[in-house]
Write a structure and sequence with these properties.
The chain is elongated. The longest helix is centred in the last third of the chain and has 19 residues. It contains 13 helices and twelve strands. By secondary structure, the chain is of the alpha/beta class. α3 links the parallel β1 and β2. Strands 1, 2, 3, 4, 5, 6, 7, 8, 9, 10, 11 and 12 form a twelve-stranded mixed β-sheet that branches.
Length: about 375
């Protein structure tokens, strides 16, 4: 799935009219974080920030009256969303959960169009980049979930306008038939080896592609060192890949079209490697990471049920479902699948450079400008 650039997303969200919409997937079953705490709930939406000791009881009572909740999410349906629907339904059989799956940009565009039209269907949205796009489109409102207290501070949003649901780590993918074990690039400087000139590719048209690669080094190294490095990297004639998703690029590496792919989701090659494909991942210092985020939509109709859903997705049970679906959980007490653990920076012994949603917004446009100047 392609997560398109933040710049394009912002232009789209400001435009009038309905967004393009993919195939809707509705799943029904028997029966969304951090915010400024509020002790008393006075109106239906006040429950979003309620922190009183009877919070769960109030949520359940309100959700029984609402009867349903709707989330637009970028989670893979069969691997992740369906198990969440089933688990949530077992716990709250009095709430019908409906989901719609698309890529994150289309999710936010659809929700924004609903808010503008005063015809809100979605209660919550989730996806890579969804939280920051929703904030910029002014369609998110703060909420509280006690589950977030156990998450690392750097992953949280102090205003409560979004909460992280899953993490992504980025590295290189390489074809094990084309890259000898002793020649695998293990540092960013190793990518400057002349042997890789014209044999590497990276994703364009995605905020987690070329802009994230450049932003990661700008933040970690500082502008002067990073820009000097980019000037050298330009000479490597990296192929600008825009013909598909991050997963598609890894498939091209497996096919031998490229020896190396830069800044891909580091777990994708491991999944293919486990199935016998000639591919592997390599992390580099610093390892860029991002989070998929979840927000509450302004004007939602099912606030109580939405908070039950948020609590469930962020709970250890919900995080475990995401881990089994080959995602990386945010909850530090929920372990990733053993086959994917090698690309978790903490486990690999490498520093993680978390690029939060606010930083993505701040730096993506300027990183895209650097890309256009040096690599187009």
């Amino acid at each position: 799935m392609i997560e398109r650039s933040s710049a394009k997303s912002r232009r789209s969200l400001r435009a009038a009219g309905l967004p393009p919409i993919g195939l809707a997937v509705l799943i029904c079953a028997g029966a969304a974080l951090v915010g400024v705490p509020r002790a008393l709930a006075q109106s239906p939406n006040d429950i979003l920030l309620y922190t009183g000791p009877d919070r769960e009881q109030r949520l359940i009572e309100g959700a029984k009256k609402e009867g349903q909740v709707v989330i637009y999410a970028a989670l893979i349906v069969n691997q992740a969303m369906r198990p969440i629907v089933e688990g949530f339904g077992r716990k709250y059989p009095f709430v019908k959960l409906a989901t719609w799956r698309a890529d994150s940009e289309d999710i936010v565009q659809k929700a924004a169009a609903e808010v503008r039209a005063n015809n809100v269907v979605a209660d919550m949205i989730e996806g890579t980049g969804a939280g920051e796009q929703a904030v910029e489109a002014n369609i998110a409102q703060p909420y509280y979930s006690p589950a977030v207290a156990g998450f690392a501070q750097e992953y949280r949003n102090p205003t409560g306008l979004w909460a992280p649901t899953r993490l992504s780590y980025y590295g290189i993918a390489y074809n094990t038939k084309l890259v000898p074990p002793d020649k695998v690039p293990k540092s960013y400087d190793d990518l400057l080896d002349p042997r890789w000139k014209g044999k590497m590719a990276w994703r364009i048209g995605s905020s987690t592609g070329t802009p994230l690669f450049l932003t990661n080094l700008r933040l970690a190294w500082g502008e002067e060192r990073a820009r000097a490095y980019f000037g050298k990297l330009r000479d490597q004639k990296i192929v600008n890949f825009g013909a598909g998703s991050a997963r598609t690029l890894v498939d091209r590496v497996i096919a031998g079209e490229y020896a190396i792919a830069l800044n891909i989701f580091a777990h994708h090659p491991l999944i293919s490697k486990g199935k016998g494909a000639p591919v592997n991942s390599q992390l580099m210092d610093p390892v860029a990471s991002t989070a998929a985020t979840m927000s509450v939509v302004k004007g939602l109709h099912h606030p109580h049920a939405a908070m039950l859903l948020a609590d469930y997705i962020l709970s250890k049970e919900g995080q475990g479902i995401l881990a089994r679906a080959e995602y990386f959980p945010v909850d530090p007490d929920v372990a990733p699948l053993p086959a994917l653990a090698p690309v978790v920076p903490k486990i690999a012994g490498l520093p993680e450079n978390f690029i939060g949603p606010d930083q993505l917004i701040k730096y993506t446009d300027s990183s895209e400008e650097i890309f256009q100047k040096l690599f187009r």
